[in-house]
Hints:
The protein is an alpha+beta fold. 33% of the residues lie in helices and 22% in strands.
Amino acid sequence: MSFIFKKLQKINLVKIILFVLLAALIIALICLLVGVTAKSDETAIVPNSSVAQEAKEALLLSAKDVDVNTLMESYTYELVQSEQLYSGVLVSGERESEPSVSSLKLVYNALFSSDGLQIASESSAKLKIQSEALIPLANMLEAFYDETSLRTILITNAYEEYEGQEDSILDSDIYYDDDGNYIGYEDIDISEYENSYSNKCAEHSDGYSVDFALYLRESGDFEAFTGEDEYEWFELNSYLYGFVLRYPEGKEELTRTEYQPEHFRYVGEAMAYIMYKNDLCLEEVSDYMSDYTYENLIKVNTISGCYVVYYEKASGDDGTAVRIPIGSDGEAQPYTVLGDGGNGYVVIVSPTAEFDISDESEAESESESSIDISSAGE
Length: 378
């Protein structure tokens, strides 16, 4: 009997040990699942605009300043297709080739600061912009908020299809009369707005432009964006983020559109610097840039890095071979080619750190921006 009792005790002990081990395993699995869920939730609430910090860190790999002669002495040729003449940030309005819609991203992702605070609003959750302009837009909105503490910017328009203009008018949420007073679309005489809306719609058909208005959170009122007082900041600083005032005052004969203080277009940092510093509208870029060739280029020093910019004339329907400087490994330096709408290409090169001539103290601090006309070979 004693033997049987001892055997039962051993069996119970084994069961107890197995039960404890099983319980520990279940607890461990629960903790693991909770941890994964928490991590997933944490990732989900981080606004996409936080990738702006990653973009800023990536710029540290670019040269802060370069010696043009060293950079440009060796080059390769890259073939650019003729279709590219009629696409990109420098080609506005109606164009011969269709703009890419696959790279459009929701404007919503640009409405938050890097720490998750909503600093701007939008008139529709469906508004989209080209992906290359999304982070610059987010950075610009955050810089404005940091400077003014205002969260009143309302984005009323971005990408929209060029067809169906009348339907687009009726689907829009925000409109203002000539005095800047908000009116609903039910009060609009469409015939009165048709021509001006057609021009604006064509400008928005490639996804590089945005329109601003003001949303006053305390009162719930809407106001037109006049670019005055604190909001003059955008006209004076948008170029730092690659945006320009698309229809500036005094350029009406060239743009064939009245002054629109609310309408900004993304053209990229290098071109925005050149346009702003030389008081150029988009219609003047081609003629201005045609004077600056590979041998007589423009060097643009921005707060985020250095660019060299030059013009290559289009050579035919079979494409154009453009010169691109190379590094010691024989590979082309990072570059972008922008068509100007029919005559040639603006080439923008972002030299790597291999060609950096700035010392460490300058590289660690924000250098002042500048634009220099440089001649390779001098």
